[in-house]
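Exercise 7. Given the components listed, write out the predicted structure of the assembled complex. Treat all entries as one system.
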Amino acid sequence: MTTSVFYIPSVNIIGADSLTSAIDTVREHGWRRALIVTDTMLNKLGMAGQIQKSLAERDIFSVIYDGTHPNPTTANVAAGLELLKENQCDCVISLGGGSPHDCAKGIALVAANGGEIRDYEGVDRSAKPQLPMIAINTTAGTASEMTRFCIITDESRHIKMAIVDKHVTPVLSVNDPTLMMGMPKSLTAATGMDALTHAIEAYVSTAATPITDACALKAMTMIAEHLPHAVEDGSNMAAREAMAYAQFLAGMAFNNASLGYVHAMAHQLGGFYDLPHGVCNAVLLPHVQQFNSKVAAARLRDCAQAMGVDVSRMNAQQGAEACIAEIRSLAQEVNIPAGLRALNVKEEDFPVLATNALNDACGLTNPVTATHEEIMAIYRAAM
Ligand SMILES: [Fe+2]
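Answer.
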């Protein structure tokens, strides 16, 4: 028997108006100077300013870094870190989806450990916990607000570095569905399919446990049921709230069972062509699970059942096929592009993409090990 460790932020607030209690928490901890990490859009919408105002009312100084790129870079981390040092900040508040959270984690980790973010690529490479971080989530979702995963693009190598480190876990996560109502359809769809990918990859992972299984299956059920409604009508509060819970459950699953080749391969597309993470995952998901079905068919049959398919008369292989069909139909329903060609991915880049995918820490728990040739074949099938 192997030992499993379960990581999650110590406090997690979910529901409407959770923002106020989050800001009260900053006060209770006695932090006095916050770096708010966000992107230009959320800053322009005034969301970062609102948080800054609420902090000021509680006598807490804050400064805003809004330079986070959709695929946050090593330069973003360095720029945010400089602002943090200049202003002697003692905590970091991220506001946004996965990008600001990952950028904030990078900043907070280097602030506490020194060096540069490249030094921490891989699994548990840091010596000390990062500066205290509060993550306020506006998408559903990467679940980065509650995970120990931090993905930063190294612009010099054109790759996404996977930094999997227990020390980047935020101390507090906030999921307020009212902050998610403004998400456009395409972002709702992409982030929702990312969450589905988290649940499925965690469920077929070699590191799955009964705890992560329960989280993953419940997440799949909720995503299959509610994602189409959240995409169709962004102001559907019930669907938004369900997706906030579902993406959090999927986060609990993959934060502890880790991921697989979908993420390992999607990171390379994101790093190389600067493509949206959720879309890359959604396109690759059925193809990687087709490859995995030779060893994980029974598990994929469970996934089909969780997504609402009647599998009672199906054997494992048929169940796996039904799961793959269900993924495809959900992706189609929420208007995910059909293949990588539509994303301008070039076949000539596959050898280097496959090499980098095999070096990505997220692939270590895929249920079956692939060769370089097999990874290339999956990319080709996904074109
Ligand atoms: Fe993801």
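Discussion: The chain has a mean pLDDT of 96. Residues 142, 194, 198, 263, 277, 281 surround fe (ii) ion (CB under 6 Å).
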